[in-house]
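Human: Respectfully, please carefully check these tokens:
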Amino acid sequence: MIVIYSTATRIDEILSLKIAQLHLDAEKPNVTIIGKRNKIRTMYLLPKAIAHLKKYLKEFHGDNLNPEAYVFYSRNVGLHGKISQTTVNKQLKKHAKTAHEMCDEVPLDLHAHQLRHAKASHWLEEGMNIVQISFLLGHEQLQTTMVYMDITLEQELKALATLEDERDKKVSKKWKNEKSKLAKFCGVKSMKQ
């Protein structure tokens, strides 16, 4: 869950992740994601995700890491078999049920894509530009990313607060005062007649 959320990657991208794609001890720790149509992107990891990944690798892969092994492998097939999306979704629902008991905002039908969507929305709330988010999500077209543009009530109120009162019919002409003209207001030199 932490890796999916922290990287906002698709579930299949995470389940296809091999040990060789992890660069946890690099100067800027990251993971190489191989997305749709073999499109490669680098996702940097924050300390919490790194700590969890290192603990997970130690427990489930031991000291001698096989670069070709799946990071999240199937216990039935072994290191060279991917865990299924169905198995991941069952685990997510199990943990969501437990979390829901503590916080009723956690959906009982939690699925991996919701974690990806949540991270994209949080990037947006933190002020990240939609083009950057689109790149990080691995979208080819910006239109695809636009579905992550959920506007919260707080964001809407903040935007509306920046507008002048639309009911006021006596709006002053901001470019007209004693010292400046329209040209200066627009940032251009005035033309002499």
